[in-house]
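> forwarded from #structure-qc
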């Protein structure tokens, strides 16, 4: 698993990077507070709903950038994706909380 900082994520989002897939593993109630455009929501708590379909949801040959609140759940998701054959998983260090502090103060903190 690779890691990127939130500034690198902001650059990739601004450049509208279509070479990567973006996944947010936070809960729907967290997304209601703060979210970034372009991310597919796959809440870890709803794994039973999407886990067996992951190959149809994400391309294993493209990088997957994973976001959560602080970077812990996204790291878990990256590890799980690697076990499923995804070779390019990228955890966003500090999560959306760090993104709010360092990149876009308009994103609410919680």
């Amino acid at each position: 698993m690779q890691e990127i900082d939130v500034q690198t994520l902001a650059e990739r989002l601004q450049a509208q990077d279509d070479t990567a897939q973006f996944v947010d593993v936070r809960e729907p109630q967290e997304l209601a507070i703060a979210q970034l455009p372009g991310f597919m929501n796959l809440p870890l708590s709803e794994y039973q709903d999407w886990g067996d379909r992951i190959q149809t949801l994400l391309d294993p040959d493209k990088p997957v950038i994973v976001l959560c609140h602080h970077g812990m759940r996204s790291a878990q998701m990256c590890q799980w994706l690697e076990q499923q054959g995804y070779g390019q998983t990228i955890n966003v260090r500090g999560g959306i909380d760090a993104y709010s502090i360092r990149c876009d103060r308009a994103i609410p903190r919680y």
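QC bot note: Residues 72-83 form the longest helix (12 residues). Residues 2-102 form a domain with the Oxidized Rhodanese; domain 1 fold (CATH 3.40.250.10).
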